[in-house]
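Duplicate of earlier report; Possible ABC transporter, ATP binding protein input re-posted below.
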Amino acid sequence: MSKKVASLEKISKTYGKDDLTVKALDSINLEIYKGDYLAVMGASGSGKSTAMNIIGCLDRPSEGVYKLNGIPVENLSDDELAEIRNQKLGFVFQQFHLLSDATALENVILPMIYAGIEPEQRLMRGKNALKKVGLSERMNNRPNQLSGGQQQRVAIARAIINNPAILLADEPTGALDSKTTEDVLDLFDKLHESGITIVLVTHEDEVANRAKKIAKFKDGRIVELKVN
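Output:
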């Protein structure tokens, strides 16, 4: 049986207080196993982004227990959470968040600088990551010299550089045209086939259907969990 990478146990998240309280998540349970490719779907306000933020240690639950690799993380310090985000998690967003004056290679190796990895090792791993996403010939280009799809590939290479336990992608094709979307989704398929665990937030059926599992959110709850 596959190893459990993450588990959300009766997780709730409440914003505001008194009469202005909003319950973004309402006692959800979710398990993510090594090698999963999970799509998280739902309308705006359904709780899918809040769940993503908790899985990614960007936010803390109001109630419940979140475990990453078997370790409860909700009571860790901000510094400890930052270290987990850097070493155990990879992030891809709708906007690419690349440094405009840095090359593709320099953008990719940035997380390894924070992780204290030696320069020679950083360069080797950075070049290998760019090769994996099909950008070996573009490693010295800056973002303004790359297409939108190429910039997203750089962001994906940066996200996988520290061999994360989970690759988290929040609407990763939202800023791309249909052809580029297909190319990026093909890349996610290849990364999943190589053994990377992926959790992808989307509101598009055609994107979600590339995943192996789909969790549908509504009003802060998971209303359906199906296997493709």
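The chain has seven helices and ten strands.

Merging into the original ticket.
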